[in-house]
Structure formats: C-alpha cells, structure tokens
Amino acid sequence: MPIAEGTWVRWLKAIRRRALNENPINLPSLPMPSCISACKINMKLLSILLFSILFIFPSFQHASAACHVDDEAGLLAFKSGITHDPSGILSSWKPGTDCCSWAGITCLADNRVTALSLYGQPDKPNGYLTGTISPSLVKVQNLDGIYIQNHNITGKFPDLLFGLPKLKFVYIESNKLSGPLPTNIGKMTQLEALGLSGNQFTGSIPSSISKLTLLTQLKLGNNRLTGPIPVGINKLTKLTFLSLQNNKLTGTIPDFFASFTNLRILELSHNKFSGKIPNSIASLAPNLGYLELGHNALIGTIPSFLGKFTALDTLDLSWNNLTGTVPKSFGNLTKIFNLDLSHNSLVDPFPVMNVKGIESLDLSYNNFNLMQIPNWVTSSPIIYSLKLAKCGIKMNLNDWKPKETYFYDYIDLSYNDISGSPVGLLNKTDYLVGFWASGNKLRFDLGSLKIVETLKILKLSRNLIYGKVPKSVSGLESLNLSYNHLCGQLPATKFPASAFVGNDCLCGSPLPPCKVNGK
C-alpha cells in the first residue's frame, strides 16, 4: 500500500526541522517493557537453544512451552471482562495455547508474562476494546508494564495494581475510567511511570502521590480533577514529564520547581490556575523543552527569565491575563518552534526573534501593532501555522513573499488592515486546512481562489471580495463570506444565510430566490 501523500509532508517537516536544529532536545521516551534489552542480549543464546531443540533433540520439534498457569488464567480473566472486541485484538488469546505468543503479551525468563501492551486504533471505527479490567489480572504477578491505551475501558481505578509488586510502568490512557484516584496511591512506591491521562477521573490529586519518588513520568491530564496541585509533588525529583493539563485544577501554581532538575515537559494548560508565573520555573531553564501554561487565569508580566530557556521547543502562555511587553530576552530562544502568546493584553514592542525556523506562531488578540509580518516569520522554511489576528498589521498581501508556503495548514490574519489579494499565497498551498482573513480590505475575484481538498474553514467576511461563489465551497465545513461584493446565484451548500448576507446581489437558497426575467 503506498504511503499517503500527507504522511510524506509530515516526514518532510520533520526532516527540515532536524536540519535547522543540529542538536534537537532529547525528549523522554515512553518506558517500554524491560524485555527489549534482555531479548537483544539473549538473541545469540536463543538461537543456539533453538538449534539444539530442532536438530539435537528432534523429538521435541513439536513440543511448545506453555506460559505459567497463573498468567494464562489472569489474562483469560482479563479477556472475559472485555465485552466488545470487533477487530479481534484478543483473537489469539485462546486457552491451551502459549500465552507468550498472544498479541500484546511480552514474556521473559521462565515464560512469565512481564508486559501487557494493548493499543487501540482511534482512527478506525472498530479498532478498540470495550469492557472492564478484571481484578483477576492480579494473578499475572510478574507484570512490570501495563499499557492499555485508546480503548473504551470503563470502571474505577483498578485496585489490582496494588497487588502487582513488580509493576513499574502504568499507562492506562485515553479510556473511560472514572471516580476518584485512590487516597493510598502512594503505596505503589516501585512505580517509575504513571500515565492515567485521557480518562474521566474526578476529585483531587491525592497527597500520597508524593511518595512515588521513583516516578520519571506523571501524566494525569485530560481528566476532571479538581483542587490545587499537592505541594508534596516537589518530592518527585526524578520527573522528566509532568502533565496535568485539561483538568479543573485551581489555586496558584506552586513555587516548587527548583526540585525538578530533570524536567523536560511541563503541561499545566487548560485549568483554572491564578496568580503569577512562579519564579522557581527559572530553575528549569537548562533542560525544559515544553512549557504549556495556556488557558488559565494567570496575571502579571511575562518573566524575563524565560529568555534563558535555550532548549525550549514549545511555549504556550495563551488565554491568560498577562500584561506588559514580551521580554527582549526572547531573542535568545533560538530553538523555539512553537510560540503561542495569543489572547492576553500584551503590548509593543515585540522583540526580534533569532529563530532558525518557526513552525507555529500565534500572537492574536493582544494589543500589538506589528505593522508587518515579522521577517523571522517570512523567512521560516518550516512554518505551518501562522495566526496574527488583530495584530495591527498594515500591508498589501501581494507584497508578502514567504520563503515557504507548501506546508501551511492554518493562516489567520483576521481584523487587521491588509489589502491586496491572498490568491497568490493560497494557490501555492496544497495542504491548507483553515484560512481566516475577515475584517480586512482584501480585494480579489473569489472564483480565482483555489479550494484545495484539505481546506475545511474559510472566513472572509467584511472585505472587498467580488465575483461569484464557486461550487467548490460546498465541501467546506465552515464558511463566512458575508458583507462583501459578491453576486450571482449561490451553489447548493449546507451553510446558513448568515454566511452570505450583506453582499451586493447574491441570491438562491438560503437567501431569497433569484429573479427570473426581471421578476
């Protein structure tokens, strides 16, 4: 099967990005079942053993080692808790067969099961499991890793985890587990990674979590957790990845980050945090690659110490109540690829950035008067998302000559003072998903605009656009062409009248019918 063209584009982006950054940050990889290194070490020994069995002892050729009876019983109990498996993920799990050969099962010495790895396929309608986690899974006593991701697993936090003494890595993510996290979660002191993101857990984060001092990854994002961040989390000094985003957490962000000398990723966005950005975050400068604090209620100015984060890849401070200017020290962020400062109350001047290439930039809805699209944006060969709505830009779009347009996914230039035509720009994009340019002075024939297959959103209201509405807009998901100078009969679309009102002479559903012979 040929690789989809869109996949090639993503590969090209990655290649270009690596070429721009000779020393990209090394992000922490997900811990994998410990068998991988052991299997590599023992491959030669395994080959010798297989040779001996097949050729020296031919009578054993048809014999097959079976996994431990407790492991088989525990796994079959897990399967019995699955009520729906439309794609046959567990079809190889059959009684009387070697469970070490079952899909998603890893075994080590003595044919004991050490890892359960079941990954759903959310892009496929039937690529997931539905059911609950059987308590009898506790029979698989040598489990050191449980990876159950992107399924429809329901129920409460699985207490059986407390009965697995060798368990180190837990990733039960993107499921539908609910209820509170157990107050005694701190008893699992052997854990090195705890990933419960993407479920429906409620209540507060238990204070006993501070006892999990071996954790390198704590991922509780995308749940419904409330209350403050427990101060005791500062005892988890080995953390490289702390993710609490998309919850309902409140209070100030604790000023305890001096303890986290190894932290690479900090995700606290989409909560209800208030107060200022804590000063101790400055201690993360040598290693931090991702700092995401957007969609909270933070106040104050952007700390100048953020300019010392020379390894920073992504900075998101959007949708807060930040004021003042962007520090000049941001010019030191030479490796940053994704910057989102949108929806604050920031003012000029905006510093000159010395980036080799920006991938995603959003400065929208502040109090900037940029006048022009910055040169460091125009020169980026890898940019795919540019959002500068209401940034005080006054320019003719015909004069803007970006170095690269091929990779653009999103462009938002709404509510500026931009004239000219976007046709030359947009007709060079092959993968554009959304274009917003309402509230400008764009003047062009709408029929000359290429509507690529990937385009889903087109917002061009309150401009000076003329011509007819092409049939190709019918494939869009969202459209607004209101208050322009368009004319003629509308093609059949699913859009409401509000998408077309205020034009010179548009007619046809959902607007009034066109006149025939002057009637």
From TrEMBL:
It comes from the Eukaryota. SMART domains: LRR_TYP (SM00369). Keywords: Leucine-rich repeat, Membrane, Repeat, Transmembrane, Transmembrane helix. It is a single-pass membrane protein. Residues 70-107 form the Leucine-rich repeat-containing N-terminal plant-type domain. Its main location: other. Pfam families: LRR_1, LRR_8, LRRNT_2. It is found in: Cell envelope; Membrane. PANTHER family: POLYGALACTURONASE INHIBITOR 1, RECEPTOR-LIKE PROTEIN KINASE 5. Belongs to the polygalacturonase-inhibiting protein family. This is Leucine-rich repeat-containing N-terminal plant-type domain-containing protein. It comes from Dovyalis caffra. The lineage of its organism: Eukaryota, Viridiplantae, Streptophyta, Embryophyta, Tracheophyta.
